[in-house]
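Deliverable D5.2: sample structural annotation.
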Amino acid sequence: MNYIQKNFHDLFNAANELNCTYQKPAQCPHCGICCDPLILGSTFISPFTAKPPQFVFLIFQCTACKKLFTATYEVTNGKSHICCMTPFKPSAFSDELIEKISPRFIEVYNQALRAKDNKDLNLAAIGYRSALEILIKDYAINELNEPPEKVIKLKLFEAISNYLPENMLSTADVVRILGNDHTHYERKYPELDFNLLQKYMDIFINLVQTKLLIANPPVSR
């Protein structure tokens, strides 16, 4: 799901708690088209104690398919996050070329994406690290024709060093290190949030897709 940063103050001339940014969905959960949806309805609920949290409910209309969808936000101490959206469309990844060499990567990565959708970010981070190892080792075995008995025994750090080109090493290492960090009792990099891990995971997958497309052109000279 893509988002646009907006401010509740543009919708409500209300309490200071609502003078904060929120993530406006920029992709329709019905048709999947990216857009700046219309806001057809908006309301907020404040507790009788006048203390946070407050809740904001927005009704959107897709500018492409014209269908309606909603988002509920919790606002606390000048910050907001989406509690739920309807309809809910879970994240899913698919790629024909990657699935040919590593179907298990598709399975594990989609499990991690579902954990991310449920805000279980520690589990998602661990899943990303596991999916990374599966993809690299399957790539080595099925694309580089390395012997499986050799590849299977390698640690992830060794597999990255042995089978990835220079321009992919740092990206894979970020996913490996931050994914490992979420398994430890005391994290070494608590200041680096999950969004950064997601960005590097996306970059790595794109690099693998690019290599597979180059190695398997649909037409030839």
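Annotation notes: Strands lie at 3-7, 21-25, 38-45, 54-61, 68-76, 79-86. The longest helix spans residues 121-142.
The annotation will be released with the project's public dataset once the embargo ends.
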